[in-house]
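explain this chain.
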Amino acid sequence: MFPFPTTENLILWACSAIALFAVVFFRRSVRNRRHKRKQQSARRVLERIKTLPGFPQKINYLRKIDPFVFEELLLEGFEAHGFRTIRNKRYTGDGGIDGQVIIGKYRYLIQAKRYRGHIALQHVQEFEKLLKRHNCRGLFCHTGKTGAGSKSVSIASERMEIISGQRLIDLLTPGSSFTIATAPQTMMKRTAATLETSTIVKDAGKENRYHES
């Protein structure tokens, strides 16, 4: 038989449990505050973009912002166009998924890359493999230039779409003509988002059975 724990042991276990709970709560609180700050920064970036005169100024500005703010910026852009998004619980260790968006009947994984030059073909290929593993569609969003190899991978893919250049700016401009080529039946502008949007999102949740992560 196991000996009955002493009062000292019970107190020690209780203190350990309380300490563990405090650590977990503190980390979660810090993470939540960090996410909130990044989201607030992303909203300020959206407003800042409106004041810049042209495409060169806007894309150069995006190349300089914090990478985590860029991730939040994309999600803010999708939400501004009437789509529902799913945020990660953390910025690192996300397995190459920087967020998710529900478009029509489909769940799209998002990968955000801030490039100054041409995007890496390897990154595009790895994202395509990731989409196959998850059996869903995806949007590779970046601030750089898309080379011939990356374009070929995107064109040949039935799952992936690259968003860059003016299309990226349109995504980050509420009320613009931003569209998703792989989901033509669900083209929406924020000004046209109505109760029908909520119905589409609800149906998407049933058909895809996605899980927040």
Notes: The helical segments are 7-51, 55-62, 67-80, 121-134, 148-156, 165-171, 195-208.
